[in-house]
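Weekly puzzle thread! Below is a chain. First person to post its structure in token form gets bragging rights.
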Amino acid sequence: EVFIDEMQDLASDDFKWMLSLTDLKIPVTLVGDFFQSTFASSRRGNHLGNLYNDFSTYERKIKEAGYYFDKITLVKSRRCTSTVCNFIENNLRINIESATDTSSEMVNITDLEEIKQILENDKIKKLFYRNSNRYNLNGENWGNSKGMTFETVCIILNDTTFNKYYKNELEGLAPQTLRKFYVACTRSSGDIYFIREKDIPNYFKKY
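Winning reply:
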């Protein structure tokens, strides 16, 4: 029997190869989360270059290859609270549920003193859209944080994401940005704080 985990990271020729495994005479099980596709194992020209921009296309290609497409069995997160899952479902339109009834805080922080306290607390992971290494903080980029778990996360919002967040239009983010933001949100097993990148005091910056 063949099992492939993190199938969403297989792209281009590797994705095509994975689909060909239906020719085997043994069971093949593929497991992954379409919306956590932030890396690509293979790139060749534009071959399947837009595969992860549209869920329905992705689902159709897998079904056409002969696989049964299961969207229910692994829908419950054992990391995220019901508060975080509800936020993702309502704002990103991604189907996710929590395996527990635990609630948590999701707060947009605007007070300067609170911002400083959170940024100075190394127990709180700061997740940036990109360029986290430009700050003297315990930080990481959204996409690179995949697979990690933190008790509390502070998500730093760049201008584009902040404007979408403020207007309740996060589902309108560009597909790759939305996936990376989703990854950032699902790193927390507890609270999530949102801070606008422009509100980070200059003395936290390296350059």
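Puzzle host: Confirmed. Bonus trivia for everyone else. The first strand starts at residue 2 and ends at 4.
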